Amino acid sequence: MSNKGLLVVLSGPSGSGKDTILERLVNLDKNIVKSISATTRPCRIGEVDGKDYFFNLTGSQFHFIKGFLRNQVSWRFA
Questions:
Q1: Parallel, antiparallel, or unpaired for β 37-38 and 53-54?
Q2: Burial label, 18 (beta-carbon count in 10 A; 0-12, 13-18, 19+)
């Protein structure tokens, strides 16, 4: 039997409370996890590599991951 999850996207402008909502959801249910995005930009003050983002990927590393995901993930758009 397949154990599929549910992907939920929290989207909103900066300062609208996305991180607060996510933190509360994770505290309510340990089955809820946050995905960590990768970025080529440097780490900002207060951000932690591997917690907030995966930082400082080179262009070739970023394109490798992008290509890997393209072959591994079935994309669906609503």
A1: parallel
A2: middle
Residue located via tokens 């039997």: 1
* Largest Cα span, the chain: 44
State the sign of the Cα–Cα–Cα–Cα dihedral 25, 26, 28, 30.
Answer: positive
Q: Please give the Cα distance from 66 to 74 (Å, whole number).
A: 13
pTM for the model stands at 0.54
Tell me the per-residue pLDDT of 15-64, one tens digit each, with 9 for 90 and over: 999 889 988 998 999 888 888 887 778 888 999 988 888 887 677 776 77
